Amino acid sequence: MRFCPFCAEPLVDLPLAGRQRRVCADPQCGWVHWDNPLPVVAAIVEHTDSEGKILLARNRAWEAVFFGLITGFIERGESPEEAAAREVKEEVGLDVTATSLVGVYDFQRKNELIIAYHVRAQGEIVLNEELCDYRLIAPEKLRPWDAGTGLAVRDWLARRG
């Protein structure tokens, strides 16, 4: 970001609240780019119609070898639990029947704060336009990855024993 979104003056880097921040150069304006992380939800989807297998999906933009959890942004007026259920319905067509918090994870690479849930869901899997493939994995064969939502998978598996 190079210019103030309110007055169009250039932004400058100044120390503010203990860090360097992008600040509007016009002292009358005073706009600050705080660059706070975005809250997102992630769902470890247990498909109850498939003997409790975990659904991993592949986004159309990803390489063919990558599959991940169902994720999405929280919308205004929505709780994180509601967001997780909505994202599961929108992305794979399943109805969430139970939700439990797994944990909260820092994902600095994308400046996001991930709120991860284990959800039980039922119904026919129907992918939306964002997704192109899915896999159903038995929990004992699920392997966590080293960043982002993989940390939630790791913690969920550890709790299961």
UniProtKB/TrEMBL annotation:
<feature type="domain" description="Nudix hydrolase">
    <location>
        <begin position="36"/>
        <end position="159"/>
    </location>
</feature>
<dbReference type="GO" id="GO:0035529">
    <property type="term" value="F:NADH pyrophosphatase activity"/>
</dbReference>
<comment type="similarity">
    <text>Belongs to the Nudix hydrolase family. NudC subfamily.</text>
</comment>
<keyword id="KW-0460">Magnesium</keyword>
<dbReference type="InterPro" id="IPR000086">
    <property type="entry name" value="NUDIX_hydrolase_dom"/>
</dbReference>
<dbReference type="GO" id="GO:0046872">
    <property type="term" value="F:metal ion binding"/>
</dbReference>
<dbReference type="InterPro" id="IPR020476">
    <property type="entry name" value="Nudix_hydrolase"/>
</dbReference>
<keyword id="KW-0378">Hydrolase</keyword>
<dbReference type="InterPro" id="IPR020084">
    <property type="entry name" value="NUDIX_hydrolase_CS"/>
</dbReference>
<dbReference type="GO" id="GO:0005829">
    <property type="term" value="C:cytosol"/>
</dbReference>
<keyword id="KW-0479">Metal-binding</keyword>
<dbReference type="InterPro" id="IPR050241">
    <property type="entry name" value="NAD-cap_RNA_hydrolase_NudC"/>
</dbReference>
<dbReference type="GO" id="GO:0019677">
    <property type="term" value="P:NAD+ catabolic process"/>
</dbReference>
<dbReference type="InterPro" id="IPR015797">
    <property type="entry name" value="NUDIX_hydrolase-like_dom_sf"/>
</dbReference>
<dbReference type="Pfam" id="PF00293">
    <property type="entry name" value="NUDIX"/>
</dbReference>
<dbReference type="GO" id="GO:0006742">
    <property type="term" value="P:NADP+ catabolic process"/>
</dbReference>
<protein>
    <submittedName>
        <fullName>ADP-ribose pyrophosphatase</fullName>
    </submittedName>
</protein>
